[in-house]
Specification:
With 504 residues, this protein is of the alpha/beta class. The chain has 2 domains: 7-91 and 321-496, Beta-lactamase (3-Layer(aba) Sandwich), CATH 3.40.710; 96-314, D-tyrosyl-trna(Tyr) Deacylase, Chain: A. The protein contains 10 helices and 24 strands. The chain has a 5-stranded antiparallel β-sheet with strand order 4-3-24-23-22, sandwiched between helices. The chain is globular. The protein starts with 6 loop residues before the first strand and ends in an 8-residue tail after the last helix.
C-alpha cells in the first residue's frame, strides 16, 4: 500500500487542532522530540499520559513517558484477556455445549427433561451464521428429530453451573447495564445476551413501529412510547429496562423515513437461552409440554449421573472468536473467553473449576503474565473487558504482553492474537481513524475508551519496515476523548513515518 501524508484540520472546542504527520524523523532523538511536540500541541486539560515505544524484535526502548504510573486501560484490558486465553487454551480451543436428557425415549416421546449444559460459548446466535440468529437452534431441532424425538414431556433446562453466579463484572456501573456492551454473562449465552430492538418511523406524531429479534420472543415485554418526528431531526435514543426484569420502555424519537436498531441486554441469559430454544423447538414441530427453566430455579436439580448424552454443539475456534472480540471490542466475548481459562481442566487438576474472573486472572498471572515478565504484584485486573475502572496497568506491563505475544513460541497463537487487532483506517474500532496518513493500514492496535480514559496499544511498522510496540494511555482529562484519540493517532502516524535504526 502507498503511504500517504495529509493534513486534516479539525475544529474542537473552538480551537484548530491540525492532524498532520510530523516531518520524517530519522533518529531516536528526533522521534522523541516529535512525540513530545504532538502531546504538547494536543493541549488536553488535566491529562495524565503514559507512552511507551519499543522495538518489537529487540525490546529496546525508543520513547518512555511516565511508564511506572498505573493507568485505567479501558478496553486495552482485552489484550490481557485475549492473550491469556490464546496462550493457555490455544487458538484451536472450542466451547462445547452438550444436550442431554434424564429421560427415556419411546414412540417419539422423550419422557423426561431436555438439559442444555453450557461451557461459556459466547457466539451462539447470528455472529457466525450470516446474521441468522436461530440457525443453531433450528439445527438442534433437526438433530433431535433425527434421534426420533417428536415430543418432550419434561422441561427444557439450562445448566449454567460451569460459571459462577456473578452475572456482571466487578465494578461495572449500573447505568451501563441495559446496553449491549454491558450484557450479563452466563455459561449459556445466546444472541450476545441481547434482544435487537427495531423502530421503523411512521407518520410524524405517531408511534414508530416496534419489533424485535429473536422471533418477537415472549421472554421480554415492551412498552412502546416512541414517537415519529420530522425528517429534518436526528434520532434521539431513549431506552430503559427495569432493573432485574425484562420489561423494556421504548421512548426514542425517530425521524420520518428512518429506522433505528439497538441491541439491549436481557436479565438472566440462561433463562433467555432456554426460553428461545423452547420457542424454536415448538416452531420446528417438536412439542414441549414442560417449561423453559434455569437450573438454579429448581429446588432439586437433576442428577448428572442419570444423564444420557444426545449430542454436542461446538463453537468456532477461539482463534476465530477473538477477531470480533477485539475488532468490535465486544465486552461479553472478552468476559466469556476469560472465564473459559478458569473452566478448562488443567493437567494438574482432577476437575475443572467454576468459571470466575478472579480464578481466571489468577491462572493468567501465574502463566501468561508471569511468562511475559510483568510485575504481577502491581498488576490489578478485575474483569475481562475493561468496563471496570478498578483495572490498573502500566504501559510497561502492556508492552511486555505485546512483546511476549509477538515472540510467542506457537506461530498459530501469535498469528491469532495479532490478526484479531483492529487495523488503522481499515476495520474494527480503528476503521475511521488514521486515514490518509502513514499509519493507515499500517497499525494493528487495540483501542480503549471510557469517560476520561483513552488508550491505544499494539504494533506499527516504521517507514523502513521495522515493527514497533506501542502502548499509550491518557487518563483524568476533562475534555472530549476525541482530542486524546487524535493525539494517539498523530503519534502512530509519526511512528509509521519514522526511519528506525539510524544512529543519533
Amino acid at each position: 500500500m502507498t503511504r500517504r501524508l495529509a493534513s486534516l484540520s479539525i475544529l474542537i472546542a473552538g480551537a484548530s487542532f491540525v492532524f498532520s504527520a510530523s516531518a520524517q524523523t530519522n533518529t531516536t532523538t528526533e522521534l522523541r522530540g516529535a512525540i513530545d511536540e504532538i502531546v504538547a500541541e494536543g493541549g488536553i486539560q488535566n491529562a495524565w499520559w503514559t507512552i511507551l515505544v519499543w522495538d518489537a524484535e529487540t525490546g529496546n526502548s525508543l520513547y518512555e513517558r511516565d511508564t511506572g504510573r498505573s493507568f485505567i486501560p479501558a478496553s486495552n484490558t482485552k489484550l490481557y484477556s485475549t492473550a491469556a486465553a490464546l496462550d493457555i487454551l490455544g487458538p484451536d480451543f472450542r466451547f462445547e455445549t452438550r444436550l442431554e436428557t434424564d429421560g427415556t425415549l419411546q414412540d417419539g416421546v422423550l419422557s423426561g427433561n431436555l438439559i442444555v449444559i453450557g461451557s461459556g460459548d459466547p457466539v451462539i446466535g447470528g455472529r457466525f451464521t450470516d446474521g441468522d440468529i436461530t440457525a443453531y437452534f433450528r439445527s438442534w431441532a433437526d438433530s433431535l428429530k433425527a434421534l426420533g424425538i417428536r415430543s418432550i414431556d419434561g422441561h427444557v433446562i439450562g445448566d449454567d453451573d460451569a460459571f459462577d453466579e456473578e452475572y456482571i463484572g466487578y465494578g461495572w456501573q449500573w447505568d451501563d447495564l441495559p446496553w449491549w456492551y454491558a450484557a450479563e454473562m452466563s455459561a449459556l449465552s445466546f444472541n450476545d445476551n441481547c434482544v435487537d430492538i427495531r423502530l421503523e418511523a411512521a407518520t410524524e406524531g405517531m408511534p414508530a413501529v416496534l419489533s424485535w429479534e429473536p422471533m418477537m420472543t415472549s421472554y421480554v415485554t415492551t412498552r412502546n412510547e416512541s414517537i415519529t418526528i420530522g425528517p429534518q431531526n436526528g434520532i434521539e435514543e431513549d431506552y430503559f429496562r427495569v432493573q432485574g426484569t425484562n420489561d423494556f420502555i421504548i421512548a426514542s424519537k425517530v425521524p420520518e423515513g428512518r429506522t433505528e436498531v439497538e441491541s439491549l441486554s436481557v436479565s438472566n441469559p440462561t433463562a433467555f437461552f432456554v426460553h428461545v430454544l423452547r420457542e424454536v423447538l415448538l416452531s420446528e414441530g417438536i412439542a414441549v409440554r414442560g417449561r423453559s427453566v434455569d437450573i438454579d430455579e429448581l429446588a432439586i436439580k437433576p442428577s448428572r449421573d442419570e444423564y444420557q448424552h444426545l449430542f454436542s454443539h461446538f463453537s468456532p475456534s477461539l482463534g476465530d472468536i477473538v477477531v470480533p472480540l477485539n475488532k468490535r471490542s465486544q465486552n461479553l466475548y472478552a468476559e466469556q473467553v476469560l472465564r473459559a481459562v478458569a473452566v478448562a481442566k488443567l493437567p494438574t487438576e482432577d476437575e475443572p473449576a467454576a468459571g470466575s474472573a478472579a480464578l481466571a486472572l489468577d491462572r493468567a498471572r501465574k502463566q501468561t503474565f508471569g511468562a511475559a515478565g510483568m510485575d504481577t504484584l502491581r498488576l490489578q485486573l478485575v474483569d475481562g473487558s475493561g468496563l471496570a475502572r478498578q483495572n490498573l496497568v502500566t504501559s510497561t506491563m502492556t508492552a511486555r504482553l505485546l512483546h511476549y505475544m509477538w515472540h510467542h513460541e506457537d506461530d498459530a497463537t501469535r498469528e491469532a492474537f495479532i490478526t484479531s487487532l483492529p487495523i488503522g483506517g481499515v476495520d474494527g474500532t480503528l476503521s475511521s481513524r488514521m486515514r490518509d496518513t502513514a499509519a493507515e493500514g499500517n497499525v494493528r492496535a487495540k483501542t480503549g475508551t471510557l469517560g476520561n480514559v483513552a488508550a491505544l496499544s499494539g504494533y506499527v511498522d516504521t517507514a523502513n519496515g521495522r515493527t514497533l510496540i506501542v502502548s499509550m494511555m491518557a487518563n483524568h482529562y476533562t475534555e472530549s476523548s476525541r482530542r486524546a484519540r487524535l493525539v494517539q493517532d498523530r503519534i502512530m502516524a509519526a511512528l509509521a513515518h519514522h526511519t528506525y535504526g539510524l544512529p543519533d
